[in-house]
Design a protein that fits this description.
By secondary structure, the chain is an all-alpha fold. The chain has a domain at 23-86 and 124-192. Helix content is 66%, strand content 0%. It has 7 helices and no strands. Helix 1 (12-25) crosses helix 2, helix 2 crosses helix 6 and helix 5 packs antiparallel against helix 6 (148-172). The longest helix is centred in the first third of the chain and has 43 residues, at 27-69. The protein binds zinc ion.
């Protein structure tokens, strides 16, 4: 397609350039493309929301372990666990999640909210986070247009969204978990230093 209407047929590079120009110069198109990109970011935010609290907990445990026993924790606690490693898997049956099963929103709908391997329920939070990230990204792109402010606003929006969902999860269970760990830590500390004056 010749977007510039000049009559000549653009080669591949010119085509890409014309497409980029069309996206940049049309706010609606820019917001739409940003929204689609936002869906992918939402998929990544789901990983952040699930793993960040676990990563922090592992770090606290490791620090506590080193403080109390002066040694490294058990091997299971030392296996690499970050936003990239290990690969995404079903928490119930550990079946790896394939690329086809990782398409934002659509995969969840297609799988009817259940793991393809074991049928365990996949919380609606996953497609909701993806949809919210897509919509908010489109809104920010629409509001700021192609600008540095847009990049800043998007980074802030994504961070706040992830933190809000993590916080919501913390309200439900890991606060109890944290309390339990604190109690255990105190008990271990008293075993370790029974004669330390209070
Ligand atoms: Zn499963």
């Amino acid at each position: 397609m010749d977007l510039q209407g000049s009559g000549h047929r653009p080669n591949g590079f010119n085509k890409q350039l014309s497409l980029a120009h069309a996206i940049i110069s049309n706010p609606l198109l820019f917001a739409g493309v940003a929204g689609l990109f936002g869906l992918l970011v939402g998929s990544f935010l789901n990983v952040v929301i699930h793993r960040l609290p676990i990563m922090l907990e592992r770090e606290w445990k490791r620090a506590a372990w080193q403080m109390l026993w002066g040694s490294e924790p058990a091997a299971a606690q030392r296996e690499p666990y970050n936003l990239m490693v290990p690969r995404s898997a079903c928490p119930a049956c550990n079946a790896p999640i394939t690329a086809v099963q990782n398409v934002p929103i659509l995969s969840w709908l297609f799988l009817k909210g259940a793991c393809a391997a074991c049928g365990a329920r996949i919380p609606a939070r996953y497609p909701l986070v993806e949809a919210a990230t897509g919509l908010l990204t489109a809104a920010v792109a629409w509001r700021f247009g192609v600008s540095l402010e847009c990049v800043g606003a998007l980074l802030l929006t994504w961070s706040l969204l992830a933190l809000a969902v993590i916080q919501r999860g913390l309200d439900r269970n890991p606060r109890d978990l944290m309390r339990r760990e604190c109690n255990r830590g105190e008990a271990m500390a008293s075993l370790r230093a029974p004669n330390r004056a209070k």
